Design the sequence.
């Protein structure tokens, strides 16, 4: 029998308290667990373990078999019990917490039960003591509270549904701040009532409304670029401040201004070319503008771009004033510090935007000018274009203080290109005029000068000969310094008015006035002092500056074939050259930076005219020219010749004019076109004097180091124009006397006579008759050409020069000459000069010492004759050999002198 302790101990899970279980024992337990059939783990309500064991008892049923089965089942029970106890011990803490939670729930249920019991008791009491009407009142109050809540929700829904409409109305009234505020409040309310499904949908619609409202604000912001409205911009700024996007809005605004410059430029040019595709760039659009419409297009372009610039200028000005007000009201709290940082950022952004926008405008205008074909502009339109660009640079100086160096350089480059192209056209025109010029005198007053031409009207106060010394130094000198700066300041004040005041007018309106002058366009001084306007002066005062010279000439003019005391000889071509000079000077006046280039082109006009006159009217010169050309004249003609090409293929130089075929320079009746020669030469001299009149003014518009070029041209070209008389007039003078007949007649005279003759030789009378015929024909010419004393004297001087050379040539042909013959020579030339003096009016006859010296050389002793042949290089070797042959009787002396003559270089 087992004891109770052993029985109790048998039921205890084996090894539960053992701490020395081996790994093998644990493995054995696991093996036992695996051997337990699954049915033993079924629910007790579904499985009867005792019946199952009895049903599966071992066969044959012996004690040993039962004992083994019992031991096996007992072992399985012990392993399962131990395993369960072990798992329970591991989950004890969780089990304790669960029991505690169960206990808490039990207490809460008890409290709840107690509350319900008390409520039922109170309800029972209320039902016993209160009436039915009291319950109805309470129910109605409850319903009222519910309805109020519902109404509030419905009102919220209604207001949220009308937000879009209300915002649209506010935007139409330009109440941007109120519109943004309404949207933000509505969004906040919608977020607070997310429990309503419809309000959740409205919240997304409010976000879309906010986005569309911001787009509307951006659209209004872009319109500010074209016409700044202070009230509208103030409302926009408040709205963006409310959104917290002030800096972002300023960034966007600058992008709009850049777009506005581009769009304004394109929209302005479009109407001038017709259809424009979307793919066309601005440069391509500009290339389609016809040259005749380009000036008007440029004017419209500058006006439109100015409107954008003015809008930005007003924006900057508004911010400047607004910042000053805010600074005066500011404090040192955190929010004000943030505002100051934002304000400084915007200020720097606006300041940089001034330069950026001007560069955009400058780029558009430059692109248009490069693409519009400036070379095809008419001159007046080109001047107007210069005025527009000058005004634009003044606008830029007021707008952002920029000196427009890029545009100024572009204007200079394009102007030089234009004036050179224009000059080439004028040179071709001058060539055509010269080749077809009739060389007839234009009827002008004796006091005529370039100031009488319309092109020089604005230069009168600087070039008036009555006050040349005073005005050129006092007024013209101030033109480049004082006057220009004063006008620059006046222009700045004038243009600033267009920036500061809201108006539809622009500084370019002046170019739409048909009565405006170029001086008004360029802001130059145009008013003349009463004393400067020669048209208002009495005739007597006009001639005051000439009377002194006239009195000196009165005695000289008495015997002149012409009774004209003063004359101005010009041709249509001369006037054309002067008018071109006036136009060139206008350009230099409006663009002082290219003055030297313009003056050089003016000088080319004179060179070409001067060279053509020489070319045309010395082509038939048939006498030796060594004494007819001065050194400076030869140098000037050579210089000009190097710059004139002989063919059309030379692109650098100007084409040499062709000799005119319509001029008759062979007829003796018109003295071989002497009238035309006079008109040509004197017109060239007159042109040179007009250039000299311009020189003091020109010196004031060029740099100091450039004045040497003007001085060189004046001294070496203008000053030698008068020297052109000698070779040109000699062409007619050399034909006044038939040299061949005269020399034959002189050769028939016997120069070896013993006695001195009392009468001159017959050839003298023949020459005198020819001179008389020449004088009569010259008188006929004077009825067509106004010959003054200077011209007449120049002509007779050439006649005298030819005659004296003719006499020396005739005298040198004498193979024998006695003392009587020498006396006859003296008698002949003295008689000839006396008669020539009466006919020509020249006192004394020029160049007569050339003959006198030669004849007197026959009387020189040996030493004196040697000095004569060595020093007198103006005589040819032939003349000197004839002199030595006749004067030296000693053969040895004659041979020695001949050797000296043959050894020197001939000057013929």
Sequence:
């Amino acid at each position: 029998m087992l004891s109770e302790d052993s029985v109790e101990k048998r039921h205890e899970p084996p090894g539960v308290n053992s701490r020395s279980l081996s790994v093998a024992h644990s493995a054995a337990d696991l093996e036992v667990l695996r051997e337990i059939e699954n049915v033993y783990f079924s629910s007790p309500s579904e499985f009867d373990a005792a019946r199952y064991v009895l049903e599966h008892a071992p066969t044959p049923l012996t004690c040993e078999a039962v004992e083994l089965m019992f031991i096996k089942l007992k072992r399985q029970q012990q392993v399962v019990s131990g395993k369960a106890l072990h798992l329970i011990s591991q989950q004890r803490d969780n089990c304790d917490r669960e029991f505690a939670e169960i206990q808490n729930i039990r207490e809460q249920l008890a409290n709840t039960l107690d509350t319900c019991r008390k409520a039922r008791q109170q309800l029972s009491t209320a039902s016993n003591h209160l009436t039915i009407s009291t319950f109805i009142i309470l129910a109605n109050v409850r319903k009222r509270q519910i309805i109020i809540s519902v109404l509030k929700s419905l009102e919220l829904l209604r207001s949220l549904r009308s937000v879009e409409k209300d915002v649209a109305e506010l935007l139409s009234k330009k109440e941007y701040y109120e519109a943004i505020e309404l949207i933000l409040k509505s969004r906040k309310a919608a977020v607070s009532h997310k429990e309503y499904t419809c309000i959740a949908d409205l919240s997304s619609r409010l976000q879309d409304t906010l986005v569309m409202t911001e787009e509307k604000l951006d659209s209004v912001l872009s319109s500010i670029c074209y016409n700044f409205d202070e009230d509208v911009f103030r409302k926009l700024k408040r709205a963006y401040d409310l959104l917290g996007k002030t800096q972002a809005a300023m960034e966007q605004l600058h992008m709009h201004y850049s777009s506005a410059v581009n769009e304004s430029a394109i929209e302005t040019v479009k109407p001038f070319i017709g259809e424009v595709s979307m793919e066309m760039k601005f440069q391509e659009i500009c290339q389609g503008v016809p040259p005749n419409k380009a000036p008007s297009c440029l004017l419209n372009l500058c006006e439109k771009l100015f409107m954008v610039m003015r809008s930005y200028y007003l924006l900057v000005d508004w911010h400047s004033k607004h910042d000053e007000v805010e600074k005066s009201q500011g404090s040192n709290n955190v929010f004000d510090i943030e505002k100051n940082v934002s304000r400084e950022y915007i200020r720097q952004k606006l300041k940089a935007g001034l330069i950026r926008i001007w560069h955009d405008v400058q780029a558009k205008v430059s692109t248009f000018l490069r693409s519009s074909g400036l070379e095809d502009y008419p001159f007046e339109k080109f001047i107007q274009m210069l005025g527009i660009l000058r005004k634009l640079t003044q606008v830029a100086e007021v707008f952002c203080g920029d000196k427009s160096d890029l545009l100024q350089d572009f204007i200079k480059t394009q102007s030089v290109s234009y004036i050179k192209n224009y000059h080439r056209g004028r040179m071709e025109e001058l060539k055509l005029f010269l080749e077809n010029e009739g060389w007839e005198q234009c009827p002008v007053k004796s006091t005529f000068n370039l100031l009488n031409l319309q092109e020089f009207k604005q230069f009168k106060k600087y070039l008036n000969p009555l006050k040349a010394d005073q005005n050129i130094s006092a007024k013209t000198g101030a033109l480049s310094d004082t006057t220009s700066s004063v006008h620059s300041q006046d222009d700045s004040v004038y243009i600033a008015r267009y920036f500061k005041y809201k108006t539809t007018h622009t500084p370019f309106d002046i170019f739409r006035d048909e009565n405006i002058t170029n001086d008004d366009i360029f802001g130059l001084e145009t008013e003349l002092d009463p004393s400067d306007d020669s048209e208002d002066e009495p005739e007597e005062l006009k001639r005051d500056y000439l009377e002194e010279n006239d009195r000196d000439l009165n005695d000289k003019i008495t015997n002149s074939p012409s009774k004209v005391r003063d004359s101005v000889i010009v041709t249509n071509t001369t006037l054309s050259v002067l008018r071109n000079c006036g136009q060139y000077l206008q350009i230099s006046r409006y663009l002082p930076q290219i003055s030297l280039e313009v003056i050089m082109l003016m000088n080319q006009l004179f060179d070409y005219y001067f060279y053509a006159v020489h070319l045309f009217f010395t082509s038939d010169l048939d006498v030796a020219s060594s004494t007819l050309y001065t050194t400076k004249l030869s140098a000037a003609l050579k210089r000009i010749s190097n710059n004139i090409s002989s063919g059309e293929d030379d692109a650098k130089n100007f084409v040499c004019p062709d000799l005119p075929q319509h001029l008759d320079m062979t007829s003796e009746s018109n003295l071989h076109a002497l009238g035309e020669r006079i008109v040509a030469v004197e017109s060239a001299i007159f042109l040179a004097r007009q250039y000299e009149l311009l020189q003091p003014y020109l010196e004031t518009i060029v740099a100091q180091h450039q004045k040497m070029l003007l001085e060189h041209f004046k001294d070496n070209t203008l000053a030698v124009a008068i020297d052109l008389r000698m070779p040109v007039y000699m062409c007619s003078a050399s034909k006044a006397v038939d040299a061949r007949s005269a020399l034959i007649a002189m050769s028939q005279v016997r120069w070896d006579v013993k006695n001195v003759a009392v009468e001159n030789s017959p050839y003298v009378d023949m020459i005198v008759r020819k001179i008389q015929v020449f004088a009569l024909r010259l008188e006929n010419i004077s009825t067509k050409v106004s010959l003054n004393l200077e011209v007449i004297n120049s002509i007779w001087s050439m006649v005298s020069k030819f005659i004296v050379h003719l006499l020396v040539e005739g005298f040198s042909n004498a193979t024998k000459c006695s003392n009587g013959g020498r006396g006859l020579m003296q008698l002949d030339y003295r008689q000839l000069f006396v008669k020539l003096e009466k006919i020509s009016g020249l006192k004394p006859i020029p160049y007569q010492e050339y003959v006198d010296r030669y004849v007197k050389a026959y009387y020189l002793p040996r030493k004196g004759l040697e000095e004569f042949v060595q020093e007198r290089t103006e005589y040819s070797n032939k003349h000197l050999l004839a002199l030595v042959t006749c004067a030296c009787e000693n053969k040895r002396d004659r041979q020695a002198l001949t050797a000296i003559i043959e050894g020197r270089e001939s000057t013929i």
Observations:
- The chain has a mean pLDDT of 79.
- Strands lie at 644-645, 654-655.
